Amino acid sequence: MVIPEINKMIPRPLLCTAVCAAAGFYFLSVQSFIFSITVLFLFLAVMCLFRVLSSVNPDNRGLRMSVICMTACAAGLMLGICAAAAGKNEVQFSLVPEKITAIEGVLLEDPRIISGGKALASISLKKCAANGGLKAGSKGEITVFFTQENAGKLREFGRGTSVFAEGKLHLNSSSFSRQPQWSFSADSLHVVKSASAFERMRTGIRLELIKRFSGKNWGGLALAMLIGIRDNLDSNLTSVYRSAGLSYILALSGMHLAVLAALIAFLLKKPLGLHAASYAGAVIIVFYCLLVGPMPSLNRAALMYLLGTLAVLGALPKNSISILALSFLIQIIAAPSSGNTISFILSYLAMAGILIITKAIVSLFSGKIPDFLLQPLAVSCGAFLATAGVCSYTFGSPAPAGIIAGLIVVPATTVFMIGSIIYLVLDFISLSAFLDLPLSLLYKLMEKTAFIAGKAPLVSMPPSFILFLSVFLLLFIIIFNKRQSLQRQRLQPFS
């Protein structure tokens, strides 16, 4: 009877690999080489110890699983350290940085319009130039600020375009990164080479969508929620959502992809059947991610959708935590630099919190809170507790009022997204006018709700204390629910 209980306590090898990969990526990679080797050696030593014990008692499944998990942990640590090294952005100039007056490179993302009408974009460096006609090769990624006069031209050409810009190089000494962070203020812009045919088609689709939603007070929000373009988003609305703790609604993530996936399932499942609809949905999701561009939180959601599709088809186990762990491992291997972004970190923390404690909260408060409120409230609480510590370090005091406001804003956002998609379809045949008023009213409802929530007091505590408190509450909910569950199981035979 003891061994089965021990076996239940042993985590899955895939989860061990993902957790230790995260530890290696975010903690061991910034430590000294000697410290990292010492930790790896300890894991290997413990693994060898369990291996010896399992050979002495080969019938003990718990010891065998412990060997597998320790091996997975060691592999995860190595993977995390290597991914962190691969994800570092080391900008290298072949000329003296202070003398550089021009750069040439390829746009890695769609230019974003910022305050004053200027444009911002990341560029993969190819060459740099200095006074006197000096030119040399360069490499690395650098942020470039373009003038308002060049913003429209830049948006027209889009991602993948090779550009040459003259201006001034800056070193951002205030950055928290251990690597030097460079930026470039461009005074002029010259297009060296157009993007590929696919990228030009993608840019054309995005420009057409911008045109379709232009002139609507809610159009900027629709563009942000459907394809991640926030250039036309009202800056006041962004501030209101941030104050209310609802900024995650404006960033493309799992919530937005879930709406799209639900529409795909609704439209395709009946005519095509489950398997064909799953394959078609996967293709649509991949194309959608290519259209939107590289967004870590959206890529995480898309990966989980694709892995979930494989699970439905029987190729993977139907376990949400394992799918999340596998998604994390795939993403830091395929795009290690994305692991350094705050959206990547918050996306995985939020999803982990939702998967770990949502059921626990629902179980604890079942019968005390109406079911139609309990489920979304539990999801919001899980995401909030899991991300509160990181948010407090990054953005300042968190806003718990967003948990309550989300009960109104999230469903309204879902309806708003579906309405925007229907509006877009009908606009191609000039039948969309009747949806303008409903979408405008939804927009005002969400804005007003966020405004009221933003007036609620913030949690004014040191970030370290918020981190400790959120972790304590997470563990308390999990342990208390586990004890309640065990107690119910003991009493069940007598009921």
Secondary-structure map with pairings?
Blueprint: H1 2-9, H2 13-26, H3 33-56, H4 61-86, E1 92-93, E2 100-107, E3 112-113, E4 119-130, E5 134-139, E6 141-146, H5 148-157, E7 162-171, E8 182-193, H6 197-213, H7 219-227, H8 235-243, H9 254-272, H10 274-292, H11 296-312, H12 320-334, H13 342-365, H14 371-395, H15 401-427, H16 436-454, H17 463-491
Parallel strand pairs: 6-8
Antiparallel strand pairs: 1-5, 2-4, 2-7, 3-4, 4-5, 4-6, 7-8
Helix pairs in contact: 2-4, 2-12, 3-4, 6-7, 8-16, 9-10, 9-11, 10-11, 11-12, 12-13, 13-14, 13-17, 14-15, 14-17, 15-16
Series of H and E elements: HHHHEEEEEEHEEHHHHHHHHHHHH
Residue share in helices? 55-70%
Question: What value does the average pLDDT take?
Answer: 83
Q: Could you tell me the strand content as a percent range?
A: 5-15%
Low-confidence stretches: 1-10
**How many alpha or pi helices?**
17
Radius of gyration: 25 Å
Question: Structural class of the secondary structure composition?
Answer: alpha+beta
- What general outline do the C-alpha atoms trace? globular
- Report the sheet with the most strands, covering strand number, pairing sense and barrel closure: 5 strands, mixed, barrel
